[in-house]
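EI: anyone free to look at a 286-residue chain?
SC: sure, send it
EI:
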Amino acid sequence: MPFDILIADSGSTKAEWAVLTANGTKKIVTQGISPYFLNTGQIILLLQEELLKNISDSNGIQEVYYYGTGCTAPNMTGIVYNALNVLFPRASIHVDYDLVAAAHALCGTQEGIACILGTGSNSCYYNGREIEMNSPGLGYILGDEGSGAYLGKRIITQYLYGKLNADVERQFEIRFDIDKNTLLENVYSTNLPNRYLASFSLFFAEHRGDPGLEIVLRAGLEDFFSVHIAGYPASKSVPVSFTGSIAWGYKDLILELCKKYNCQPGKIVREPMSDLVEYYRLKRDS
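SC: here you go
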């Protein structure tokens, strides 16, 4: 008999939830949860207000699968686990990080390479049951090749070094209402520099077709392939799939690069939730 499942995919700013029941699926959006900034008590209060009020029968939920930012170290995972255990005492609670969600959503129960290209980047080789190999993104300072922050950093350096042509430079300054001094000050003083850098990656999408910008954009995406995907022994024999706003926004270049690196392209999706729902529906009903 089908039972109720709660699935969560949470970033720092937004969390998407899906309740699977025998009658269908209900999706709920709440504030994001990061155990680096919220303790167990704060998470409980947040979810009581924004999640539980939108679930008609929380006692009917038998399994909770939570994937979220910061949920790699045991102490961080424990903060979220303890909150969910209070809110759903009858359920079996599972807490993991976003790369596992990507693997389940993109690969299901099959072998594959799962990639995240959003504000940050990450990837793994998934054997159909678990992550077997991970080429980490290292964060926006040391790595995150191909991510929004990485691409934003590339367009910023082009601007600061005077590499953009005069017309594109003028459009850049108007679009973001900045000059070079202001930009430098903001990069080194903002509270969330990775998001700040990533916001500039929109300029590529707004100027597709500009020859100079296309070169910079393609090179930034190709760095992800050369540094990460090419390092997986299975990269030429299993599907390589992607999730995230950058992967979705530049699908054409992702497919071109898959061909260049002799990769078999798999799924390319903006968000993993719909595929996660299907993964757990099949798992529940099997």
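EI: The chain has 13 helices and ten strands.
SC: 👍
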